[in-house]
Amino acid sequence: MAGLATAYGSGAATNSIEGIRESDVIFVLGSNTSAQHPLVYARITAAHARGAKLIVADPRITPVAALADKHLRIKTGTNLALVNALMHVILAEGLHNEAFIAERTENFAALQESLAQCTPEWAEGITGIGAEDIRQTARLYATGSSSVIIYCMGVTQHVTGTRTCAALANLTMLCGMVGRPSTGLMPLRGQNNVQGSCDMGALPETLPGYVAAGTALAEQRFAPLWGNFANTKGRKLTEIMAGMVDGSIRAAWVMGENPAQSDPDAASVMEGLGKLDFLVVQDLFLTPTARMAHVVLPAASYLEKQGTFTNTERRVQMVNEVLPPVEGSRADWQILRDAIRALGGQADYTCPEDIFEEIKKVVPSYAGMSYARIAQAQGLCWPCPTPDHPGTPVLHSTSFTRGLGLFTVNTFTLDDMGEQPCADYPYLLITGRESHQYHTGTMTRRSWALDREFPEAFLDVHPDDALALKIKENWMVTIRSRRGSITARVRISKSVQPGTVFLPFHYAESSANVLTGHHYCDPVAGIPALKMTAVAIEEKK
Amino acid sequence: MKKTLTTCGYCGCGCNFYLTVDKGRICGVQPKQDHPVSLGMLCSKGWQGHGFVRHADRLTSPLVRAEDGTFSPVSWEDAYALIARRLPDVLRQHGADSFAMLSSARCTNEENYLAAKLTRSVLGSAHIDHCARL
């Protein structure tokens, strides 16, 4: 998000999901779209059937990669080198959009200078993608009438994540491929309300509505409603976790998350949670995280409460109560409201709509919405500043949120690769998700019709590696990293490249995050390089 | 039978569907034909992802953990009382800065807003984040 926010002034997806159907060039990076965003994939297949060109950069042969006209089988962790080389070609061949650059952007000269050395031949040595394929991709993207870029965690969960996002924003502005229907840049949000939880200030750097913490504007906007508040930048998730271990964080409250399984280096997460003087956890189930709590509060699920979610295209939508909460549980908003009161704060809300009305006072992009309007319009895309505003499906159409789009310099060096295979840990582990399961599996593994599809963890291993390791399909193997070891069943598959293996992280009994670490992080966003862990594999004795 | 329109709680697509409830159980899923995202379609999680909702593992009472690691059920009033006693105690001793909130990309906007308010305003800490960062 930080990369896009710097370039455009907003980190959100620029276009609508439905708009992808009408795009004529679709460039997908690091997204297993059919498994993770099936309804986005439906638009990709529809566009492709209509004749749109599909380019996919992914180290694995995922279904969307198999469908692609061009699959760039990139070496893990080298996206930035690819994107910079694409821009080098576009400039070298004069395919850039001079009018757009002149009217809508700034700092172009610095970008141009920074790309001089990023030839396709240079990138070939780093990414493993042929120079000619890079040239063809650049031409396809730059000469399309409406090109769209779609990316996900395969871009962000690397040391170069923020820089790659910024480089992708550069690419869109270089070609004028942003600010029009079906034309733009779409980061896909992995969870139902990632967009909304960021909009609402569940972040250490920003208050609700992306007001930067520590500013006079923050004071002016929030003090009337909140009174005295911590108007400073706080710690990022990985820093919070480190703080639990080193004793600077002594009390924590976890709402609907399962860091003991979802966060890197599970052993150190458990150590940190175990050291806390006081831990409160709100959840549906007694998750591995909840087991560490001093107080566990039983929460109602999304099917048992009212509220709003904001999807990946910034569409704010109604969540309605389908069933009453399981007896004894309460909605998270109710739990937090009562906790605020118990701790001496003000919280006079009788229903979620009361909270939404307060949000509108401090988040201008939501100010024109109401529960009635959202329901009637089947969701409204922010910004929607006034009650008669129709919402904004396409961002940045006449000017960027920050005014002029900002070209940034994003240099790739070989030190940026993260953890590399070595003699002791010769394979590179990529983690991800599987269709039919979701995240740490708290819900899907208790939904029998889903869990029966993939009831246990598997490790995808290339046949050449299996031969060298003397292991066969369905055998159990031990996977070791510098952090820990787990066991999983082997699936022989050419979907991974020799030397790399793939493991989904849904399974508590084969928890991928026992293996991953946070030693290598994106320096700006603090996102750990979860897609690169050096591991050793052997038959389980 | 009661039919309710709602938004799916799994990925960031945000499909809408009708769920039918009979005798306290979800017995039907119907995608919304004219919804701008779903357009009458759903994925396997949309069709089947509600199975957890009445699972026997659901928590039905606040729990307090004893020294030996066992949990015992307590009333909501007692749970809040314990929080109102213990949490300010820790913060008095180590400073507001020693508190951290992990909010959730699975929860609603309203809930995330309250989490931000609780952390920054009521408890006076700036340490709030959630796993969207991962």
What does this structure look like?
The complex is a heterodimer of chains A (541) and B (134). With 541 residues, chain A is an alpha/beta fold. Chain A has 3 domains: 2-188, 3-Layer(aba) Sandwich (Dimethylsulfoxide Reductase, domain 2), CATH 3.40.228; 194-381, 3-Layer(aba) Sandwich (Rossmann fold), CATH 3.40.50.740; 419-539, Barwin-like endoglucanases. Helix content of chain A is 33%, strand content 17%. In chain A, the strands form 6 sheets. A 6-stranded mixed beta barrel of chain A has the order 16-20-17-19-18-21. In chain A, α5 crosses α9 (131-143). The two termini of chain A are 44 Å apart. Chain B starts with a strand and ends in a 5-residue tail after the last strand. With 134 residues, chain B is an alpha+beta fold. Chain B is built from 3 helices and 7 strands, in the order βββαββαβαβ. Chain B folds into 3 domains: 2-54, N-terminal domain of TfIIb (Single Sheet); 59-94, no CATH class; 96-134, no CATH class. Chains A and B meet through α3, α12, α14, β9 and β10 of A and β1, β2, α1, β4 and α2 of B.
